[in-house]
Design a protein that fits this description.
This protein has 25 helices and seven strands. By secondary structure, the chain is mainly alpha-helical.
Length: 592
Protein backbone atom coordinates (compact mmCIF):
# COMPACT_ATOMS: atom_id res chain seq x y z
CA UNK A 1 0.00 0.00 0.00
CA UNK A 2 2.76 2.44 0.93
CA UNK A 3 4.38 2.35 -2.52
CA UNK A 4 1.04 2.73 -4.30
CA UNK A 5 0.13 5.76 -2.22
CA UNK A 6 3.55 7.35 -2.75
CA UNK A 7 3.30 6.78 -6.49
CA UNK A 8 -0.24 8.19 -6.57
CA UNK A 9 0.70 11.30 -4.58
CA UNK A 10 3.77 11.97 -6.70
CA UNK A 11 1.85 11.51 -9.95
CA UNK A 12 -1.12 13.62 -8.85
CA UNK A 13 1.02 16.57 -7.76
CA UNK A 14 3.78 16.31 -10.36
CA UNK A 15 2.24 18.81 -12.78
CA UNK A 16 0.11 21.70 -11.58
CA UNK A 17 -2.09 21.69 -14.70
CA UNK A 18 -3.35 18.22 -13.79
CA UNK A 19 -5.04 19.55 -10.64
CA UNK A 20 -7.79 21.43 -12.49
CA UNK A 21 -10.17 21.19 -15.42
CA UNK A 22 -9.81 24.96 -15.84
CA UNK A 23 -7.54 25.98 -18.71
CA UNK A 24 -4.89 27.50 -16.49
CA UNK A 25 -2.08 27.38 -19.06
CA UNK A 26 -4.10 29.88 -21.08
CA UNK A 27 -4.27 32.12 -18.02
CA UNK A 28 -0.51 32.60 -18.07
CA UNK A 29 -0.99 34.74 -21.16
CA UNK A 30 -4.22 36.42 -20.15
CA UNK A 31 -6.56 34.34 -22.30
CA UNK A 32 -9.79 34.35 -20.30
CA UNK A 33 -8.80 36.20 -17.15
CA UNK A 34 -5.97 38.29 -15.74
CA UNK A 35 -5.69 36.97 -12.21
CA UNK A 36 -2.19 35.62 -12.79
CA UNK A 37 -1.22 39.08 -14.04
CA UNK A 38 -2.56 40.53 -10.78
CA UNK A 39 -0.69 37.94 -8.69
CA UNK A 40 2.57 38.66 -10.53
CA UNK A 41 2.13 42.42 -10.13
CA UNK A 42 1.41 41.88 -6.42
CA UNK A 43 4.64 39.87 -6.16
CA UNK A 44 6.55 42.80 -7.64
CA UNK A 45 4.89 45.53 -5.54
CA UNK A 46 5.26 43.55 -2.31
CA UNK A 47 8.98 43.03 -2.95
CA UNK A 48 9.47 46.76 -3.47
CA UNK A 49 7.52 47.72 -0.35
CA UNK A 50 9.54 45.24 1.71
CA UNK A 51 12.69 46.96 0.44
CA UNK A 52 11.40 50.20 1.99
CA UNK A 53 10.61 51.96 -1.29
CA UNK A 54 8.19 54.86 -0.74
CA UNK A 55 5.03 54.35 -2.79
CA UNK A 56 3.10 57.47 -1.78
CA UNK A 57 2.59 60.32 -4.21
CA UNK A 58 3.84 63.80 -3.33
CA UNK A 59 3.90 67.17 -5.09
CA UNK A 60 7.70 67.37 -4.95
CA UNK A 61 9.38 69.45 -7.66
CA UNK A 62 11.01 66.39 -9.23
CA UNK A 63 10.64 64.60 -12.54
CA UNK A 64 10.29 61.19 -10.94
CA UNK A 65 9.16 59.66 -7.65
CA UNK A 66 10.12 56.22 -6.30
CA UNK A 67 6.65 54.93 -7.14
CA UNK A 68 7.34 55.54 -10.83
CA UNK A 69 9.78 52.64 -10.73
CA UNK A 70 7.41 50.50 -8.64
CA UNK A 71 4.65 51.01 -11.20
CA UNK A 72 7.02 50.35 -14.09
CA UNK A 73 8.07 46.97 -12.67
CA UNK A 74 4.51 45.99 -11.69
CA UNK A 75 3.22 46.83 -15.16
CA UNK A 76 6.02 44.77 -16.70
CA UNK A 77 5.08 41.83 -14.44
CA UNK A 78 1.40 42.06 -15.43
CA UNK A 79 2.34 42.21 -19.10
CA UNK A 80 4.49 39.08 -18.74
CA UNK A 81 1.30 37.31 -17.66
CA UNK A 82 -0.58 38.44 -20.75
CA UNK A 83 -2.16 41.73 -19.69
CA UNK A 84 -2.29 44.40 -22.35
CA UNK A 85 -0.98 47.86 -21.45
CA UNK A 86 -4.27 49.35 -20.26
CA UNK A 87 -5.15 46.35 -18.14
CA UNK A 88 -1.62 46.20 -16.71
CA UNK A 89 -1.92 49.88 -15.76
CA UNK A 90 -5.25 49.34 -14.01
CA UNK A 91 -4.04 46.26 -12.12
CA UNK A 92 -0.82 47.94 -11.01
CA UNK A 93 -2.43 51.21 -9.95
CA UNK A 94 -5.14 49.43 -7.97
CA UNK A 95 -2.66 47.17 -6.19
CA UNK A 96 -0.36 50.11 -5.38
CA UNK A 97 -3.34 51.96 -3.93
CA UNK A 98 -4.34 48.97 -1.80
CA UNK A 99 -0.68 48.60 -0.76
CA UNK A 100 -0.80 52.09 0.74
CA UNK A 101 -0.32 54.61 -2.04
CA UNK A 102 -2.58 57.65 -2.35
CA UNK A 103 -4.61 58.29 -5.48
CA UNK A 104 -3.53 61.89 -6.07
CA UNK A 105 -1.29 64.67 -4.81
CA UNK A 106 -0.56 68.26 -5.73
CA UNK A 107 -2.28 71.22 -7.36
CA UNK A 108 -1.51 72.41 -10.01
CA UNK A 109 2.26 72.00 -10.66
CA UNK A 110 3.65 68.85 -9.22
CA UNK A 111 0.19 67.42 -9.80
CA UNK A 112 0.26 63.65 -9.76
CA UNK A 113 -2.49 61.07 -10.08
CA UNK A 114 -1.88 57.36 -9.62
CA UNK A 115 -4.07 56.26 -12.52
CA UNK A 116 -2.57 58.78 -14.92
CA UNK A 117 0.98 57.86 -13.90
CA UNK A 118 0.28 54.16 -14.48
CA UNK A 119 -1.35 54.94 -17.84
CA UNK A 120 1.58 57.04 -19.05
CA UNK A 121 4.19 54.52 -17.87
CA UNK A 122 2.27 51.78 -19.69
CA UNK A 123 2.09 53.92 -22.83
CA UNK A 124 -1.70 53.95 -23.02
CA UNK A 125 -3.92 56.59 -24.59
CA UNK A 126 -6.64 58.06 -22.42
CA UNK A 127 -10.26 57.28 -23.20
CA UNK A 128 -13.48 58.59 -21.71
CA UNK A 129 -15.31 56.89 -18.86
CA UNK A 130 -18.20 56.15 -21.21
CA UNK A 131 -15.94 53.70 -23.13
CA UNK A 132 -14.85 51.70 -20.08
CA UNK A 133 -16.81 48.46 -19.65
CA UNK A 134 -17.89 46.87 -16.41
CA UNK A 135 -16.83 43.37 -15.55
CA UNK A 136 -18.98 40.57 -16.95
CA UNK A 137 -21.79 39.22 -14.79
CA UNK A 138 -23.37 37.13 -17.56
CA UNK A 139 -23.75 40.43 -19.46
CA UNK A 140 -21.88 43.73 -19.16
CA UNK A 141 -22.54 47.44 -19.57
CA UNK A 142 -20.24 50.45 -19.82
CA UNK A 143 -19.62 53.77 -18.13
CA UNK A 144 -21.87 55.32 -20.76
CA UNK A 145 -24.74 54.71 -18.35
CA UNK A 146 -23.09 56.90 -15.71
CA UNK A 147 -22.11 59.61 -18.19
CA UNK A 148 -25.58 59.73 -19.75
CA UNK A 149 -27.30 59.96 -16.35
CA UNK A 150 -24.97 62.79 -15.32
CA UNK A 151 -25.58 64.75 -18.52
CA UNK A 152 -29.32 64.15 -18.32
CA UNK A 153 -29.23 65.88 -14.94
CA UNK A 154 -27.00 68.61 -16.33
CA UNK A 155 -29.49 69.42 -19.07
CA UNK A 156 -32.28 69.33 -16.48
CA UNK A 157 -30.20 71.79 -14.39
CA UNK A 158 -30.25 69.51 -11.31
CA UNK A 159 -26.59 69.43 -10.32
CA UNK A 160 -25.65 72.99 -9.37
CA UNK A 161 -27.30 76.32 -8.66
CA UNK A 162 -24.46 78.26 -10.24
CA UNK A 163 -25.27 79.76 -13.64
CA UNK A 164 -21.93 79.95 -15.41
CA UNK A 165 -23.27 82.45 -17.94
CA UNK A 166 -23.39 85.18 -15.30
CA UNK A 167 -20.09 84.46 -13.55
CA UNK A 168 -18.19 87.77 -13.85
CA UNK A 169 -15.05 88.28 -15.90
CA UNK A 170 -11.95 87.60 -13.82
CA UNK A 171 -13.81 85.17 -11.55
CA UNK A 172 -14.49 82.11 -13.68
CA UNK A 173 -11.44 79.95 -14.28
CA UNK A 174 -9.35 81.72 -11.64
CA UNK A 175 -8.59 81.52 -7.90
CA UNK A 176 -11.50 83.81 -6.93
CA UNK A 177 -13.74 80.96 -8.03
CA UNK A 178 -11.50 77.90 -7.55
CA UNK A 179 -10.15 78.85 -4.11
CA UNK A 180 -13.06 80.95 -2.93
CA UNK A 181 -16.48 80.43 -1.45
CA UNK A 182 -18.27 80.13 -4.78
CA UNK A 183 -16.16 77.20 -5.94
CA UNK A 184 -15.12 75.45 -2.74
CA UNK A 185 -18.32 75.91 -0.73
CA UNK A 186 -20.92 75.76 -3.50
CA UNK A 187 -19.72 74.76 -6.95
CA UNK A 188 -17.34 71.84 -6.56
CA UNK A 189 -18.88 69.90 -3.69
CA UNK A 190 -22.49 70.10 -4.82
CA UNK A 191 -21.65 69.26 -8.41
CA UNK A 192 -19.42 66.38 -7.27
CA UNK A 193 -21.90 64.91 -4.81
CA UNK A 194 -25.02 65.32 -6.95
CA UNK A 195 -23.27 64.22 -10.13
CA UNK A 196 -21.72 61.13 -8.59
CA UNK A 197 -25.09 60.14 -7.15
CA UNK A 198 -26.74 60.61 -10.56
CA UNK A 199 -24.04 58.56 -12.30
CA UNK A 200 -24.30 55.80 -9.71
CA UNK A 201 -28.08 55.60 -10.06
CA UNK A 202 -27.68 55.48 -13.83
CA UNK A 203 -25.30 52.53 -13.56
CA UNK A 204 -27.54 50.66 -11.12
CA UNK A 205 -30.52 51.12 -13.43
CA UNK A 206 -28.58 50.01 -16.50
CA UNK A 207 -27.27 46.93 -14.71
CA UNK A 208 -30.78 45.86 -13.75
CA UNK A 209 -32.37 46.67 -17.10
CA UNK A 210 -30.06 44.37 -19.04
CA UNK A 211 -30.72 41.51 -16.65
CA UNK A 212 -27.58 41.87 -14.52
CA UNK A 213 -27.47 41.90 -10.73
CA UNK A 214 -26.27 45.46 -9.97
CA UNK A 215 -22.82 45.87 -8.44
CA UNK A 216 -23.15 48.72 -5.93
CA UNK A 217 -19.38 49.16 -5.57
CA UNK A 218 -18.67 49.32 -9.32
CA UNK A 219 -21.69 51.54 -9.93
CA UNK A 220 -20.40 53.97 -7.31
CA UNK A 221 -16.86 53.99 -8.72
CA UNK A 222 -18.20 54.65 -12.22
CA UNK A 223 -20.44 57.39 -10.84
CA UNK A 224 -17.42 59.13 -9.32
CA UNK A 225 -15.29 58.64 -12.42
CA UNK A 226 -18.04 60.10 -14.60
CA UNK A 227 -18.52 63.31 -12.61
CA UNK A 228 -14.77 63.82 -12.11
CA UNK A 229 -14.46 64.21 -15.87
CA UNK A 230 -16.41 67.42 -15.24
CA UNK A 231 -15.54 68.55 -11.72
CA UNK A 232 -11.97 69.54 -10.86
CA UNK A 233 -10.98 66.17 -9.29
CA UNK A 234 -8.64 67.47 -6.58
CA UNK A 235 -10.18 70.81 -5.69
CA UNK A 236 -10.45 71.71 -2.03
CA UNK A 237 -13.92 72.00 -0.52
CA UNK A 238 -15.43 73.94 2.35
CA UNK A 239 -14.79 72.94 5.96
CA UNK A 240 -18.34 71.60 6.15
CA UNK A 241 -17.09 68.55 4.20
CA UNK A 242 -13.85 68.00 6.09
CA UNK A 243 -10.39 69.29 6.92
CA UNK A 244 -8.38 71.45 4.54
CA UNK A 245 -6.02 69.31 2.40
CA UNK A 246 -7.87 66.14 3.48
CA UNK A 247 -11.36 66.45 2.00
CA UNK A 248 -11.55 67.28 -1.69
CA UNK A 249 -14.03 67.03 -4.54
CA UNK A 250 -13.16 63.35 -5.15
CA UNK A 251 -14.00 62.52 -1.54
CA UNK A 252 -17.29 64.44 -1.73
CA UNK A 253 -18.12 62.62 -4.97
CA UNK A 254 -17.41 59.39 -3.09
CA UNK A 255 -19.89 60.45 -0.40
CA UNK A 256 -22.61 61.03 -2.99
CA UNK A 257 -21.91 57.76 -4.77
CA UNK A 258 -21.81 55.71 -1.56
CA UNK A 259 -25.15 57.13 -0.43
CA UNK A 260 -26.76 56.48 -3.83
CA UNK A 261 -25.44 52.92 -3.96
CA UNK A 262 -26.41 52.11 -0.37
CA UNK A 263 -22.88 51.06 0.54
CA UNK A 264 -21.75 50.75 4.18
CA UNK A 265 -19.73 53.63 5.62
CA UNK A 266 -16.72 51.42 6.37
CA UNK A 267 -15.11 48.43 4.67
CA UNK A 268 -12.54 46.02 6.10
CA UNK A 269 -9.76 44.01 4.48
CA UNK A 270 -10.27 40.30 5.07
CA UNK A 271 -7.51 38.88 7.25
CA UNK A 272 -6.02 42.15 8.54
CA UNK A 273 -9.19 43.96 9.61
CA UNK A 274 -7.77 47.20 8.14
CA UNK A 275 -10.62 49.70 7.90
CA UNK A 276 -11.32 51.88 4.88
CA UNK A 277 -13.66 54.86 4.72
CA UNK A 278 -15.90 53.76 1.86
CA UNK A 279 -16.41 57.28 0.49
CA UNK A 280 -12.65 57.83 0.38
CA UNK A 281 -12.08 54.43 -1.24
CA UNK A 282 -14.76 54.98 -3.88
CA UNK A 283 -13.55 58.53 -4.53
CA UNK A 284 -9.95 57.41 -4.94
CA UNK A 285 -10.79 54.46 -7.17
CA UNK A 286 -12.98 56.76 -9.26
CA UNK A 287 -9.99 59.07 -9.79
CA UNK A 288 -7.86 56.08 -10.83
CA UNK A 289 -10.51 54.72 -13.21
CA UNK A 290 -11.08 58.15 -14.79
CA UNK A 291 -7.43 58.42 -15.77
CA UNK A 292 -6.44 54.83 -16.48
CA UNK A 293 -7.15 54.55 -20.21
CA UNK A 294 -9.26 51.83 -21.81
CA UNK A 295 -9.20 48.57 -19.86
CA UNK A 296 -11.08 45.61 -21.32
CA UNK A 297 -13.83 43.50 -19.78
CA UNK A 298 -11.32 41.03 -18.33
CA UNK A 299 -9.31 43.93 -16.95
CA UNK A 300 -12.40 45.15 -15.16
CA UNK A 301 -13.16 41.62 -13.98
CA UNK A 302 -9.82 41.41 -12.19
CA UNK A 303 -10.36 44.94 -10.84
CA UNK A 304 -13.66 43.83 -9.32
CA UNK A 305 -12.10 40.62 -7.99
CA UNK A 306 -9.35 42.61 -6.23
CA UNK A 307 -12.15 44.35 -4.32
CA UNK A 308 -13.34 40.92 -3.14
CA UNK A 309 -10.51 41.22 -0.61
CA UNK A 310 -12.94 43.20 1.54
CA UNK A 311 -14.90 41.25 4.15
CA UNK A 312 -18.08 42.91 2.88
CA UNK A 313 -17.49 41.80 -0.74
CA UNK A 314 -20.80 39.96 -1.07
CA UNK A 315 -22.81 42.89 0.27
CA UNK A 316 -21.10 45.48 -1.95
CA UNK A 317 -21.26 43.41 -5.13
CA UNK A 318 -17.53 42.88 -5.59
CA UNK A 319 -16.13 39.75 -7.18
CA UNK A 320 -16.55 36.35 -5.58
CA UNK A 321 -12.95 35.20 -5.15
CA UNK A 322 -13.20 36.16 -1.47
CA UNK A 323 -15.57 33.30 -0.62
CA UNK A 324 -17.71 31.62 0.52
CA UNK A 325 -18.07 29.98 -2.92
CA UNK A 326 -14.90 28.73 -4.57
CA UNK A 327 -14.87 30.22 -8.08
CA UNK A 328 -13.06 28.96 -11.18
CA UNK A 329 -9.31 29.49 -10.89
CA UNK A 330 -9.37 32.36 -13.39
CA UNK A 331 -11.32 34.50 -10.96
CA UNK A 332 -8.92 34.11 -8.04
CA UNK A 333 -7.48 37.58 -7.44
CA UNK A 334 -8.53 38.45 -3.89
CA UNK A 335 -5.76 36.19 -2.57
CA UNK A 336 -3.19 38.52 -4.16
CA UNK A 337 -4.44 41.40 -2.02
CA UNK A 338 -4.87 39.20 1.06
CA UNK A 339 -1.30 37.88 0.88
CA UNK A 340 0.19 41.26 -0.03
CA UNK A 341 -1.47 43.01 2.92
CA UNK A 342 -0.61 40.24 5.38
CA UNK A 343 3.03 40.13 4.30
CA UNK A 344 3.32 43.89 4.71
CA UNK A 345 1.54 43.81 8.08
CA UNK A 346 3.98 41.12 9.27
CA UNK A 347 7.02 42.97 7.85
CA UNK A 348 7.91 40.23 5.41
CA UNK A 349 7.42 37.25 7.74
CA UNK A 350 5.96 34.71 5.31
CA UNK A 351 5.31 32.13 8.03
CA UNK A 352 3.03 34.50 9.94
CA UNK A 353 1.32 35.62 6.73
CA UNK A 354 0.80 31.98 5.69
CA UNK A 355 -0.76 31.11 9.06
CA UNK A 356 -3.27 33.94 8.62
CA UNK A 357 -4.04 33.02 5.00
CA UNK A 358 -4.87 29.50 6.14
CA UNK A 359 -7.04 30.87 8.94
CA UNK A 360 -8.95 33.07 6.50
CA UNK A 361 -9.55 30.13 4.15
CA UNK A 362 -10.88 28.03 7.00
CA UNK A 363 -13.18 30.83 8.16
CA UNK A 364 -14.68 32.25 4.98
CA UNK A 365 -15.09 29.31 2.54
CA UNK A 366 -17.72 26.58 2.28
CA UNK A 367 -15.06 23.96 1.53
CA UNK A 368 -11.83 25.16 3.17
CA UNK A 369 -9.73 22.22 2.01
CA UNK A 370 -10.82 22.66 -1.59
CA UNK A 371 -10.34 26.44 -1.37
CA UNK A 372 -6.78 25.95 -0.15
CA UNK A 373 -6.02 23.45 -2.90
CA UNK A 374 -7.36 25.94 -5.47
CA UNK A 375 -5.14 28.69 -4.03
CA UNK A 376 -2.16 26.36 -4.10
CA UNK A 377 -2.82 25.47 -7.74
CA UNK A 378 -3.16 29.01 -9.05
CA UNK A 379 -0.21 30.25 -6.97
CA UNK A 380 2.03 27.51 -8.36
CA UNK A 381 0.83 28.33 -11.86
CA UNK A 382 1.58 32.04 -11.30
CA UNK A 383 5.11 31.10 -10.25
CA UNK A 384 5.66 29.76 -13.75
CA UNK A 385 5.46 33.41 -14.81
CA UNK A 386 6.99 35.18 -11.80
CA UNK A 387 7.89 34.13 -8.28
CA UNK A 388 7.68 36.39 -5.28
CA UNK A 389 6.54 36.76 -1.68
CA UNK A 390 2.82 36.67 -2.49
CA UNK A 391 2.98 33.32 -4.27
CA UNK A 392 5.41 31.90 -1.72
CA UNK A 393 3.13 32.82 1.18
CA UNK A 394 0.06 31.37 -0.54
CA UNK A 395 1.84 28.10 -1.32
CA UNK A 396 3.25 27.89 2.19
CA UNK A 397 -0.27 28.39 3.60
CA UNK A 398 -1.85 25.68 1.48
CA UNK A 399 0.72 22.93 0.86
CA UNK A 400 -0.48 21.02 3.91
CA UNK A 401 -4.09 21.01 2.73
CA UNK A 402 -3.04 19.80 -0.71
CA UNK A 403 -0.91 17.02 0.79
CA UNK A 404 -3.69 15.90 3.13
CA UNK A 405 -6.37 16.03 0.44
CA UNK A 406 -4.34 13.90 -1.95
CA UNK A 407 -3.17 11.44 0.73
CA UNK A 408 -6.65 10.87 2.16
CA UNK A 409 -8.12 10.13 -1.26
CA UNK A 410 -5.23 7.90 -2.27
CA UNK A 411 -5.54 5.80 0.88
CA UNK A 412 -9.33 5.59 0.56
CA UNK A 413 -9.13 4.53 -3.09
CA UNK A 414 -6.52 1.85 -2.38
CA UNK A 415 -8.58 0.38 0.46
CA UNK A 416 -11.76 0.37 -1.61
CA UNK A 417 -10.10 -1.20 -4.65
CA UNK A 418 -8.60 -3.89 -2.40
CA UNK A 419 -12.08 -4.50 -1.00
CA UNK A 420 -13.37 -5.20 -4.50
CA UNK A 421 -15.09 -1.91 -5.33
CA UNK A 422 -15.13 -0.66 -8.93
CA UNK A 423 -13.20 2.53 -9.72
CA UNK A 424 -16.25 4.48 -10.90
CA UNK A 425 -18.08 3.50 -7.72
CA UNK A 426 -15.18 4.78 -5.59
CA UNK A 427 -15.13 8.14 -7.41
CA UNK A 428 -18.87 8.43 -6.94
CA UNK A 429 -18.41 7.79 -3.21
CA UNK A 430 -15.89 10.65 -3.05
CA UNK A 431 -18.28 12.96 -4.88
CA UNK A 432 -21.12 11.85 -2.58
CA UNK A 433 -18.95 12.90 0.36
CA UNK A 434 -18.30 16.24 -1.31
CA UNK A 435 -22.05 16.71 -1.77
CA UNK A 436 -22.69 15.98 1.91
CA UNK A 437 -20.01 18.46 2.96
CA UNK A 438 -21.47 21.19 0.75
CA UNK A 439 -24.99 20.54 2.07
CA UNK A 440 -23.77 20.77 5.68
CA UNK A 441 -21.62 23.85 5.09
CA UNK A 442 -24.42 25.69 3.26
CA UNK A 443 -26.95 24.74 5.93
CA UNK A 444 -24.68 26.16 8.63
CA UNK A 445 -23.76 29.28 6.66
CA UNK A 446 -27.31 30.19 5.69
CA UNK A 447 -28.66 29.40 9.16
CA UNK A 448 -26.13 31.85 10.58
CA UNK A 449 -26.98 34.51 8.01
CA UNK A 450 -30.76 34.26 8.43
CA UNK A 451 -31.04 33.36 12.10
CA UNK A 452 -33.23 30.38 11.12
CA UNK A 453 -32.69 26.64 11.33
CA UNK A 454 -32.00 25.69 7.72
CA UNK A 455 -31.34 22.20 6.42
CA UNK A 456 -30.43 21.73 2.76
CA UNK A 457 -30.60 18.47 0.85
CA UNK A 458 -29.72 18.19 -2.86
CA UNK A 459 -31.94 15.41 -4.16
CA UNK A 460 -30.88 15.58 -7.81
CA UNK A 461 -27.77 16.81 -9.61
CA UNK A 462 -27.52 15.75 -13.24
CA UNK A 463 -27.31 17.05 -16.81
CA UNK A 464 -29.80 17.51 -19.67
CA UNK A 465 -32.27 19.69 -17.78
CA UNK A 466 -33.92 21.23 -20.84
CA UNK A 467 -31.79 20.30 -23.85
CA UNK A 468 -32.19 17.08 -25.79
CA UNK A 469 -30.18 14.23 -24.24
CA UNK A 470 -26.58 13.97 -25.39
CA UNK A 471 -23.51 12.11 -24.19
CA UNK A 472 -21.72 15.43 -23.59
CA UNK A 473 -24.42 16.96 -21.38
CA UNK A 474 -25.00 13.73 -19.50
CA UNK A 475 -21.29 13.55 -18.74
CA UNK A 476 -20.70 17.28 -18.05
CA UNK A 477 -23.73 18.54 -16.19
CA UNK A 478 -22.37 22.03 -15.49
CA UNK A 479 -23.74 23.25 -18.83
CA UNK A 480 -27.40 22.30 -18.36
CA UNK A 481 -27.83 21.36 -14.72
CA UNK A 482 -30.95 19.52 -13.62
CA UNK A 483 -31.01 20.16 -9.87
CA UNK A 484 -33.68 19.48 -7.25
CA UNK A 485 -33.46 20.47 -3.60
CA UNK A 486 -35.33 19.83 -0.39
CA UNK A 487 -34.92 22.77 2.01
CA UNK A 488 -36.26 22.79 5.56
CA UNK A 489 -36.66 26.21 7.19
CA UNK A 490 -37.54 26.11 10.89
CA UNK A 491 -39.19 22.76 10.32
CA UNK A 492 -41.13 23.84 7.21
CA UNK A 493 -40.16 21.97 4.04
CA UNK A 494 -39.72 23.73 0.68
CA UNK A 495 -39.21 21.70 -2.50
CA UNK A 496 -37.36 23.28 -5.44
CA UNK A 497 -37.66 21.02 -8.47
CA UNK A 498 -35.72 22.03 -11.59
CA UNK A 499 -33.93 24.97 -9.95
CA UNK A 500 -32.12 26.20 -13.06
CA UNK A 501 -34.62 25.50 -15.82
CA UNK A 502 -37.94 25.86 -14.02
CA UNK A 503 -37.84 27.60 -10.64
CA UNK A 504 -35.44 30.48 -11.40
CA UNK A 505 -36.88 31.65 -14.76
CA UNK A 506 -40.44 31.36 -13.42
CA UNK A 507 -39.64 33.41 -10.32
CA UNK A 508 -37.60 36.08 -12.11
CA UNK A 509 -39.82 36.53 -15.17
CA UNK A 510 -43.05 36.47 -13.16
CA UNK A 511 -41.60 38.39 -10.18
CA UNK A 512 -42.65 35.79 -7.60
CA UNK A 513 -41.23 37.46 -4.50
CA UNK A 514 -41.68 34.55 -2.10
CA UNK A 515 -39.81 32.16 -4.40
CA UNK A 516 -37.11 34.74 -5.14
CA UNK A 517 -36.39 34.92 -1.42
CA UNK A 518 -36.01 31.14 -1.18
CA UNK A 519 -33.88 30.65 -4.30
CA UNK A 520 -30.53 31.68 -2.72
CA UNK A 521 -30.89 28.77 -0.29
CA UNK A 522 -30.70 26.45 -3.28
CA UNK A 523 -28.49 28.54 -5.57
CA UNK A 524 -25.52 28.66 -3.20
CA UNK A 525 -24.94 24.88 -2.91
CA UNK A 526 -25.76 24.18 -6.56
CA UNK A 527 -23.35 26.87 -7.77
CA UNK A 528 -20.60 25.48 -5.54
CA UNK A 529 -21.16 22.06 -7.13
CA UNK A 530 -21.35 23.41 -10.69
CA UNK A 531 -17.94 25.07 -10.33
CA UNK A 532 -16.21 21.96 -8.96
CA UNK A 533 -14.05 21.48 -12.05
CA UNK A 534 -11.57 23.99 -10.64
CA UNK A 535 -10.02 21.28 -8.41
CA UNK A 536 -10.29 17.66 -9.52
CA UNK A 537 -8.47 15.59 -6.91
CA UNK A 538 -11.56 13.36 -6.72
CA UNK A 539 -10.75 12.42 -10.33
CA UNK A 540 -6.98 12.34 -10.64
CA UNK A 541 -6.06 10.72 -7.31
CA UNK A 542 -8.25 7.61 -7.79
CA UNK A 543 -6.90 7.42 -11.35
CA UNK A 544 -3.34 7.55 -10.04
CA UNK A 545 -3.98 4.78 -7.52
CA UNK A 546 -5.59 2.57 -10.15
CA UNK A 547 -2.66 3.24 -12.48
CA UNK A 548 -0.10 2.38 -9.80
CA UNK A 549 -1.93 -0.84 -8.93
CA UNK A 550 -2.12 -1.86 -12.59
CA UNK A 551 -5.64 -3.27 -12.35
CA UNK A 552 -7.05 -1.39 -15.35
CA UNK A 553 -5.82 -0.05 -18.66
CA UNK A 554 -5.17 3.68 -18.88
CA UNK A 555 -8.14 4.14 -21.24
CA UNK A 556 -10.48 2.27 -18.89
CA UNK A 557 -9.29 4.42 -16.00
CA UNK A 558 -10.09 7.62 -17.92
CA UNK A 559 -13.57 6.33 -18.77
CA UNK A 560 -14.43 5.05 -15.30
CA UNK A 561 -13.36 8.05 -13.25
CA UNK A 562 -15.44 10.39 -15.42
CA UNK A 563 -18.39 8.02 -15.19
CA UNK A 564 -18.26 8.20 -11.41
CA UNK A 565 -17.41 11.91 -11.08
CA UNK A 566 -20.95 13.25 -11.43
CA UNK A 567 -19.93 16.44 -9.55
CA UNK A 568 -16.18 16.86 -10.08
CA UNK A 569 -16.58 16.40 -13.83
CA UNK A 570 -19.11 19.21 -14.27
CA UNK A 571 -16.95 20.55 -17.11
CA UNK A 572 -14.76 18.60 -19.58
CA UNK A 573 -11.04 18.01 -19.12
CA UNK A 574 -10.88 15.31 -16.45
CA UNK A 575 -10.45 12.27 -18.67
CA UNK A 576 -7.16 13.20 -20.39
CA UNK A 577 -5.75 14.40 -17.07
CA UNK A 578 -6.79 11.15 -15.36
CA UNK A 579 -5.10 9.11 -18.10
CA UNK A 580 -1.93 11.15 -17.85
CA UNK A 581 -1.80 10.79 -14.07
CA UNK A 582 -2.50 7.05 -14.25
CA UNK A 583 0.29 6.53 -16.78
CA UNK A 584 2.70 8.58 -14.67
CA UNK A 585 1.80 6.72 -11.47
CA UNK A 586 2.39 3.41 -13.24
CA UNK A 587 5.84 4.58 -14.32
CA UNK A 588 6.74 5.81 -10.83
CA UNK A 589 5.50 2.57 -9.28
CA UNK A 590 7.76 0.54 -11.57
CA UNK A 591 10.78 2.39 -10.22
CA UNK A 592 9.99 2.25 -6.50
Amino acid sequence: MEKVIIAAIMASTSEVDLMSNDRIEALTKGHGMLNIAAICAANSITEDVLKGIEIRLTDENRQYLPIDDVLKKAIKSAKMAGADAANAALISATLCYLAGSNAQAGVPAGNRKLGAMARMIAGVDRCGVLAIPTSKANNKISGYAAVKAIYDDIFANKLTEIDGSIVPLGVGGGPLYGHGALGEDEGFPKLAKNGAAAGTRGMLTAYANVGMPPSPILAAIFGVAGILEIVHPDSEVGEYYGEFFKANSAYVAGVGAVEAAGLPEKLHIRGTGEEYDTAQLVGDLGVILKDIGGPSVIGMMVFEELLAAFEESLAIGAGFSGGPLQPPLGHMSADAVLAMKLIMENEGDLEKAADKIREVKEQFWLEPEVAMIATNTISRKAEQVQRGPVTRACILATDGARAKGVYDRAKFTYQQLEAGKELDEIVRMLDDEKLNEVETACSNLLSGMTGKDIKIKVTKFAGCARRKPSEFLMKYCGFDTDADLEITIDGQKVILEGLSHKVIPDAVLNKKTDILEAIPLGAVPITELQLSGHSIINIIVPAAVAGAMGKLSVDDIGTKVISGAYISSAIPGGSPRAKKVAKRAKRIMSEL
